[in-house]
Amino acid sequence: MGVYCFTDGDASYVGYSRNIRATQKRLEFELKLNACSYARLQRFYNESDLLRFELLEEYTPPASITELEADAHLQALLLKHKTRLKATCIQTEV
After folding, report:
1. Domain 2-89 bears CATH identifier 3.40.1440.10
2. pTM of the full predicted structure?
């Protein structure tokens, strides 16, 4: 669970997921097939030679919080990294 980005060094797209590895594999597969459901990310991929995936921050919620609270923490982390990187958000994966 955590926040990730796709970057080419100049621009970044950030998102969050409860399953980072599965999200990474799915998005990379879709991008290679030119079939990504996030059109802006697909255009970014098609125009970039050096696009790479990066895990920005892993998050392990305490057992005492609800799924809704965990999602709120992930969204806060997403906004932190979006601001820091001046990135575009892609639709988040929950």
Report:
1. yes
2. 0.84
